[in-house]
Amino acid sequence: MISSYKILFSVDLLHDFYSTSFCKDFSIIPSPATAKYLKANQLLYRQVNHQLLVLTKVNTGAASIVPNPKDKVINKLSATAVLSFYLILNNPQFFTITQAGQLSFATHKFYFNNLTANSFNQVLYLSKPLPAFIRGNAYAVGNIVSQGNSCFQCLADHSNESLNNTTFWVAKNGFQYATNQDSTRVLPKIINYTLSAANAATSFTIKAFALNKMDNTTFDVEQPLKHHLFTSDELTTQVQINLEGLMPGRYRITINGTNIYEENSVYIDDTMYANQVAGVLEIFSHLPAANEYALYTIDDKTKDTPVNNKPNWLKYSIRFPNRQAIWKYIALRKSLADISINPNPMNYDFSSTPFPPPPLPSSDADIFLSNKPIPISESPPAFKLEILGGVNGESPPAPAPDPLQSGMLVQHNNQDYFNIYLNY
Questions:
Q1: Main-chain phi, psi angles of 290, to 5 degrees
Q2: Which single residue of 128, 152, 266, 313 could bond 304 by disulfide (Cβ 3.0 to 4.6 Å)?
Q3: How far apart are CA 75 and CA 90, in angstroms?
Q4: CB-based burial of residue 339 (10 Å sphere; 0-12 exposed, 13-18 middle, 19+ buried)?
Q5: Across-strand partners of 153?
Q6: How far apart are CA 196 and CA 340, in angstroms?
Q7: Do 324 and 374 contact (CB within 8 A), yes or no?
Q8: What is the pLDDT of residues 34-84, one digit of tens each?
Q9: How many Å is the Cα radius of gyration of the chain?
Q10: Phi, psi (deg, nearest 5) at residue 28
Q11: Rounded to an integer, what distance in angstroms lies between the CA atom of residue 71 and that of residue 131?
């Protein structure tokens, strides 16, 4: 048999902060179980800059053979296979430049998969669909919503402002974004759990339920547990949950019929829990060929087929939003007269503020605040500083926020501020 490799799928990590959109802030590595599975099934994986590539071996036999085996996958993944890849964060400034929402990474990690059914503007996103805008709902700074083929980011807390009100909303590009809804609680296989006093008992039945792959939503497929019963001689609220034998992944865990956490599922993985892993992405292989997220065509081939003589294959994407904040210029020498903007399509404006939000500089200074949040990016808007008396007759360019500067990002009353110090 003559064989070669074709791309089974790729995952692009993208970010609005970067001028190229390529997010190289993560290393993408297979979980230990996935690394073994890839090797056993002759699959290759490579990370090229911002992109994960997974390749599979295919038949390159003669087209004259009937039925034609050409380009058929040699080792098709079983319908039960799940490929898991860890996201290892390499850039400590990632959360400074990212609008991640109120996500507690002490207990939760990013979670993405190919069951999201989030095809948007012909891009297959591994993040959940953004919630549709509903006027009258309460929205907080940083919330992102969708309407039609567009999405919008909230600039100020409110509950009844239309998307046309640019004081409260800014239009984003026609993308879907990873937000705090794309997260999961991560737990080890041994969990010391405390129940409420009302649920104290001497006997506790522990159950674990896996994903139902018929609807890809509910967790009602019970898994056998070696340690399904925990007992105590006295009434207690302290229960040790032992999930030895469970494969790493998402499960719904119950004690005496009640979920242990409010989430629909939790991610059980000792490696993720014990190490500095920022997230995980899972690729499921059970989707039918008619599903655009499926790995294979109806005749068990990859989707690595040129279109109009251009390379084309199954491409997934994850896109992160850049952080938007009030820009706060601090002129220590009290010589800043104004900040000019030309051109100014976003209608940004700066004004001197006698009572600025904290923290305040240790010495007296002029402080100018933007009239609304401005995104941080590698290619920021061009502002000019109007200096009293001028600087050699010129208006110098205003510096943009520096993610590497300690204390640049601060929060006050649920609003982000970028502190930018000027030596003028």
A1: -70, -20
A2: 313
A3: 33
A4: buried
A5: 144, 170
A6: 58
A7: yes
A8: 999 999 999 999 999 999 999 999 988 665 555 657 789 999 999 999 999
A9: 26
A10: -115, 115
A11: 40
pLDDT digits (tens, 9 = 90+) for 9-21: 999 999 999 999 9
Domain boundaries in the chain?
3-109+278-320, 189-268, 325-422
Q: Which two tokens stand for residue 58?
A: 């295919």
Please tell me the pTM assigned to this model: 0.92
| Residues whose CB falls within 8 Å of the CB of residue 265, separated by 6 or more in sequence, listed in order | 184, 211, 219, 250, 251, 252
Question: What would the two tokens of residue 378 be?
Answer: 């590698």
Both tokens assigned to 71: 């380009």
> How many CA atoms are closer than 13 Å to the CA of 335, on its beta-carbon side?
11
How is 183-232 classified by DSSP, letter by letter?
Answer: EEEEE-SEEEEE--GGG-EEEEEEEEEEE-TTTTS-EEEEE--SS-EEEE
The residues facing 253 across adjacent strands are: 208
Contacts of residue 405, defined as CB under 8 A and 6 or more positions apart, other chains included, come to: none
Q: Where are the beta strands (DSSP E) in 262-414?
A: 266-268, 279-284, 315-320, 324-331, 336-341, 350-352, 366-370, 374-375, 383-387, 409-412
| Element housing 270 (H / E) | helix 270-274
Identify whether 67 is preceded by a cis peptide bond (ω within 30 of 0). Answer: yes
> Which residue type sits at 327?
W
* Type of residue found at 384: K
Q: Mind giving me the DSSP string for 8-44? A: EEEEEEEETTSTT-B--SEEEEE-HHHHHHHHHTT-E
pLDDT > 90 in the chain, percent:
67
Query: Which residues contact residue 36 at a Cβ distance below 8 angstroms, ignoring those fewer than 6 apart?
Result: none
Q: How many CB atoms lie within 10 A of CB 251?
A: 22
In contact, 44 and 54? CB cutoff 8 Å: yes
Cβ of 262: how many Cβ atoms within 10 Å?
6
